[in-house]
Automatic annotation (TrEMBL):
InterPro entries on file: Fido, Fido-like_dom_sf, Fido_containing
Keyword field: ATP-binding, Nucleotide-binding
Domain Fido, chain residue ranges per copy: 117-272
Active site (catalytic residues): H205
Entry GO MF terms: ATP binding
Keyword Nucleotide-binding belongs to the record: yes
Protein name, as recorded: Fic family protein
Pfam annotation, one family: Fic
Annotated source species: Luteibaculum oceani
Length: 282
């Protein structure tokens, strides 16, 4: 799991030196030194504070609902949390079209509670997420065509990884993830690598659609694997939606084409989840 050392401790600095031996291939670990220099939160206390919230419904179901709604809203879905809460917990009936895609995403968040984080299971999660987005033959299947992300001005916003190298890039990403899952990480490292995995995945953009929803799920999944059930309360999806302009600007910041991405510019994106957790009002 995770060692709860703080970035200010001598034990942590010694540990940082040891972690330089971690042989990552696609995740830019060199950025961690700059991250640790600016990280001024006690992440252990922030995480504990996130659990201090009484509610009349199941804690885990509630936060999975929050994740599902706000990750859907980032993609432009017309769904409000108040309505989804009534749908999930009060049995209020809505038109299926209104709740279905958030329900599908909720099913994927349920799945990752007990599923090992690996490439095969990621494809299974994508099948759930896109049940009402993509035709069956595209669910959980990597694309075999070029992929361009179109911005609000109807211009090409980003050119994703080539379909010729997509499978090898995903294989490399998951080899890095497996190394991180097997390693003893500090809590600072967990909060560094989780959003970084999100970022690298969404830049590869392996699926025809549902990449953003899957990337945010992947970030939460890594948190769950390293921190356990307490990670359910990390409202990263709501934080990204609340700071939606920063979210997209920080995604764009590292480059417009996969082949020329500069992860030295990724620090603002990587800090978003920790900043959101520690500055959230409860």
């Amino acid at each position: 799991m995770v060692s709860f050392w703080t970035a200010q401790s001598s034990e942590f600095l010694l540990y940082l030196c040891c972690m330089s031996d971690l042989k990552l291939s696609i995740l830019p670990k060199d950025l961690f030194l700059r991250y640790s220099e600016v990280m001024n939160f006690d992440l252990v206390k922030c995480l504990e504070k996130a659990q201090e919230f009484d509610m009349p419904v199941d804690y885990f179901q509630f936060y999975k609902s929050v994740s599902s709604v706000y990750s859907s809203k980032i993609e432009g879905e017309n769904i409000e949390f108040d309505s989804f809460f009534k749908h999930k917990f009060l049995n209020v009936r809505f038109n299926p079209d209104y709740t279905q895609r958030a329900d599908d995403l909720y099913g994927a968040y349920e799945m990752i509670d007990d599923a090992e984080l690996n490439e095969e299971n990621l494809k299974k999660a994508h099948k759930l997420i896109t049940s009402n987005i993509l035709p069956l033959n595209h669910r959980g299947v990597y694309r075999n065509n070029p992929m361009y992300v179109i911005g609000d001005d109807d211009r090409i916003d980003y050119v994703a990884a080539s379909q010729m190298k997509l499978a090898s890039e995903m294989d490399t990403l998951f080899k890095d993830i497996q190394l991180l899952l097997a390693a003893e990480l500090s809590i600072e490292e967990v909060f560094f690598y989780a959003p970084l995995i999100h970022l690298v995945f969404v830049k590869i953009h392996p699926f025809q659609d549902g990449n953003g929803r899957t990337a945010r799920l992947l970030e939460k999944w890594f948190f769950l694997q390293k921190l356990g059930p307490k990670a359910t309360g990390i409202q990263l999806e709501k934080n990204y939606y609340t700071h939606l302009r920063d979210y997209y600007n920080n995604l764009r910041k590292i480059g417009l084409e996969y082949e020329s991405l500069d992860y030295n510019l990724a620090l603002d994106f990587v800090l978003m989840t920790a900043n959101g957790l520690c500055s959230a009002k409860r």
